[in-house]
Amino acid sequence: MVDSPMIRRARDSAAVSAAATTQSVASLLLTIVIILVLPSPAVHATKQLVANPGFDLGLSHWVCIGCKAEWKTGQGIDGTPAAKITKRTAKWSRFASQIYVKKHHYYYYTAYIHILRPEADAKPYYSVEAVVKVINRDGSLNYTTIGINRRIQPDTGFRKVGGDFMVRTDAKAAEIYIRGFSLQVEYVMDNVSVMEIVPNPDWRKTADEQIEKYRKADVDIRLTGKCKEKDYKLTMTQEKYQFGFGACVKGPLFSRPEQEVYRQFIYTNFNWAVLENTLKWKNMETTRGNLKLTVPSKVIPELRKHGIQVRGHTVFWGQQTTIVPWMRKLSPEEVMKAIDYRISTAVKYFGSNLSHWDVNNENVKGDAYEVLTGNPNITTVMFKKVHAEVPSVKLFINDNSIVQYSKSTVAIADQAKLLLQDGAPLYGIGVQSHLRRIPAIHVLQRRLDEVAKAGLPIWISEMTYETSDMKTRTAVYEDLLRVYFSHPAVEGILFWVISNNGWRPDAAILNSDMTPNPVGQRYLELRKQWSTPFFSHQLKFGSTIFRAFQGDYRLQLKENGIVIFNKLIKVRRCRQIIRIDLSKCSQKTPSVTID
């Protein structure tokens, strides 16, 4: 579904009308380009910066450079007006509107396009790029691809493209346009948007408020019929977290007898884990038909025995460089047989011992299986087949360049919606978070918000921040944890690099002896801060309400110091009501109901 275009248009109508009376003729001669009014330094609220974004004013404020544009009523989203683009003559041909931007400010662009099936160029799908062209005051030009949606199939309805960018130079104008598909392709465009990403100087305070709102819940204890001359005390001890805090486990390292410190750190400080390499097809079945199961068969039960749930990474991996080498020589029919074999062996073997599976890793960027099978919808097929084999396991897409860059941010949310539309049993979105530079927090938050528009749970599946500066590494990891933990769509965070003896050692949270470095220590401090380890309250007649982090708690009621009730309760987002009736004093066990 598309984000409320009619509401957006009503909201923007006044701005569009004002822009229509002030835009110069010269601005129309510049190029997919959108005209941004230079924001006032005093303005902090974000607003729509596109004149005529939904084409309610015809093609006013837009021109076609090297192409033909037609205004079409009833062909847009929800039957609204739209622009149809045809007869493009060159790669640089584009449908355009000019924009003005401010140096060192961030902006994000989105648009919806419907690719019409061409007669002369019948490709199964097309790659569509969103490009920003900055025109500097000294006459120089800067081009940047800000977003790519690599597999838009003709006649699949409106698909979303876009990305974000920062203006780094003294610009006098900017243009954002789409390109990348064949000149024969015709398309319809609607609901174009450019907005500034405005920083929030108090973002940490806002994040903490979000944590209080979304990660805690009310516990309402209602005591009735209290017996006279008896002292009642209620205690609640948190035994499990609802939120997922996880780590990537190196299977061979974990299995070594001398690595008890490493294992104990995992057992004690995480409730989720993912195996680094041993479940990947390329590592498991290097020779066709010969599965290497020894390491995961030992590690996964050991993790589960200690109360740790395990993510499966990954059934398939859609990059050309990561497929099983022997598969390159197979026919499309043989590739499908190999896919079926992978599911009926590896997926079936681990069954419900895995709580999640990434089904086709990095499929937003990689199309290896689409090419090998000749089926543009092979990922949907994979999801359905995996679900049929392990219906209790939650299935994910998982990709990079989502929060560290913007090239795939819009595309992964769009892919999720299309998979759901096609009937794929998709549960959530895995967002890799491999960072090598300090992120602009407000931009990272904006990207996360874009992914959340798919309406699915998000897992930060592979979090790293890489620098040899331990002070900076610690500060950035703390910011990332706070941003992710405070976002209502995020259900879990997994550190991808724990020890410093492997991939990206400058992202590790442990020292060489497997004790926590400053990053690991700060994580443990935050985890303690974001928990309710113990609650004790002298009960009074009536209702007692307190806030607790979501999780599993051991509830005990003591009468004159003696435990008379002991039960495990689950605190989730909704208010937990515990009714304790002590009116029958002669009974040793009180009447307790939990709503």
Task: Describe the protein's architecture and organization.
This protein has 595 residues and is of the alpha/beta class. It folds into three domains: 193 residues, Sandwich (Jelly Rolls), CATH 2.60.120; 82 residues, Sandwich (Immunoglobulin-like); 286 residues, TIM Barrel, CATH 3.20.20. The protein contains 14 helices and 28 strands. The strands form seven sheets. The chain has an eight-stranded parallel β-barrel, surrounded by four helices. Strands 2-3-10-5-8 form a five-stranded antiparallel beta sheet. The chain is globular. The N terminus is likely disordered.
Question: Into how many domains do the coordinates divide?
Answer: 3
- CATH class descriptor of the largest domain: Alpha Beta
| Strand order in the sheet with the most strands | 13-14-15-17-19-20-21-22
Overall geometric form: globular
Largest sheet: 8 strands, parallel, barrel
Distance between the termini: 35 Å
What's the topology here?
Layout lengths: L4 H18 L2 H4 L34 E3 L2 E5 L9 E5 L7 E3 L9 E11 L9 E11 L4 E12 L6 E8 L4 E9 L6 E12 L5 H12 L1 E9 L7 E10 L2 E6 L1 H5 L4 H10 L2 E4 L5 H4 L9 H12 L3 E4 L3 E2 L14 H19 L5 E3 L1 E2 L6 H6 L4 H12 L4 E6 L9 H13 L6 E8 L5 H12 L5 E8 L4 H17 L3 E6 L22 H12 L4 E5 L3 E8 L1 E9 L2 E10 L4 E6 L9 E4 L1
Parallel strand pairs: 11-27, 13-14, 13-22, 14-15, 15-17, 16-18, 17-19, 19-20, 20-21, 21-22
Antiparallel strand pairs: 1-4, 2-3, 3-10, 5-8, 5-10, 6-7, 6-9, 11-24, 12-23, 12-25, 25-26, 27-28
Helix pairs in contact: 3-13, 8-10, 11-12, 13-14
